[in-house]
Fold this protein.
Amino acid sequence: MDFEFSQEDQAFREEVRAFLSENVTPDMREAVRKTTTVFADKELAMRWQAILVEKGWAVPAWPVEHGGTGWSVTQKYIWGEECARASAPGLIPLGLRMLAPVIFKYGTEDQKNYYLPRMLSGEHYWCQGYSEPGSGSDLSSLKTAAVKDGDDYIVNGTKIWTTHAQFADHIFCLVRTDTSGRPQAGITFLLIPMDTPGITVEPIITIAGDHEVNQVFFDDVRVPQANRVGPENEGWNVAKYLLEFERGGGGAAVRLKESLKELRNIASSELANGEPLIEDAGFRNRISELEIRTSALEFAELASLARMSRGESPGTASSLAKNTSVEIDQGILTLKLEAVQHYAMPHANKISLDGHNEPWPGPDHAETVTPRYLNVRAASIYGGSKEVQKNIIAKAVLGL
Ligand SMILES: Cc1cc2nc3c(=O)[nH]c(=O)nc-3n(C[C@H](O)[C@H](O)[C@H](O)COP(=O)(O)OP(=O)(O)OC[C@H]3O[C@@H](n4cnc5c(N)ncnc54)[C@H](O)[C@@H]3O)c2cc1C
């Protein structure tokens, strides 16, 4: 295992740093600072995507002939680290990082030629229609039905927790096309334009006061069979392949390190008993504990990178990394919440949701703490819940 960066990697880092310092503008950084949700704001993400597309750096993981960068695994890590350090906006992963690999592997030539360029240009904005009421962890029990009618399917049912469905013009969907065998054996993967008659989107407002997720209803929605990815009734394999990319993001430690720096800054400017909070040994210890866990996570991620650069898959390391990074993230936000004390009480998102326009009463660093603290609770649920990851670790790592 070699954790040293080569001279070429150092030169690459300088190039990335120069690009980011020129292109991440102060207003973008401010918008990132104010983001309280899992994904960046749509406008911001699309603006950043256009800049990266022009540079040729929007989709590092894609094959080079389709717009990928051909970067090594280490270069991709450096890119992630520098983006976090520069507070660059995140790109929305639903199309670019999750659906694209599926189209590359299972899509027809027509599907590749039609969907991939539009995804890259930002003309198409995707959402993910997997979960249903009653079918989340136990996804293969899903019931949204697609029945053949001539060259089409007629889709009826509902999807829930659909992130950014209110913005999306396309949804990739798991539907049931057979009920006769094992639940996994009767699932099909469909691509559906959101403006198809019969689709309605209802908002779900989260405890954090955000409109991030939705429920989507399908009422006799006609979808051409040409929009199917992979064979009928074999969508479960396609669905699982996509989940590898949803869960295997990696690079969480670089973002957590930035959040820890912010926590130290907050603790330095907030007072406890007349002294800066950072002088309190008990509070400092709790920060240090999170810093140590973050360092351990970073080395685990680097070890995973080293394995991937030798062509091995991250395997169960991604389940361990997911649970650990979520626990650290939640731990950091708990300390931020404690540090800002009574300024955690006015909840900016909720206030604006209720139609108030009062100015924020506290320091800038406190404004996003409560909505982020609340939003990050969901991280132990989406992308495979904490308990489900523990089941994977128990079976695959501990052999239980
Ligand atoms: C913010 C947010 C965004 C989301 N975005 C999307 C999206 O864009 N598209 C989409 O399709 N879905 C999305 N989801 C849905 C998400 O994938 C599901 O919520 C998740 O899979 C859990 O399913 P569930 O909510 O039905 O809970 P359940 O599966 O009912 O789980 C309830 C509880 O039981 C536990 N549990 C379940 N099974 C087991 C088991 N075998 N052993 C031990 N414990 C178990 C779980 O860990 C959990 O604590 C999103 C969810 C959230 C919170």
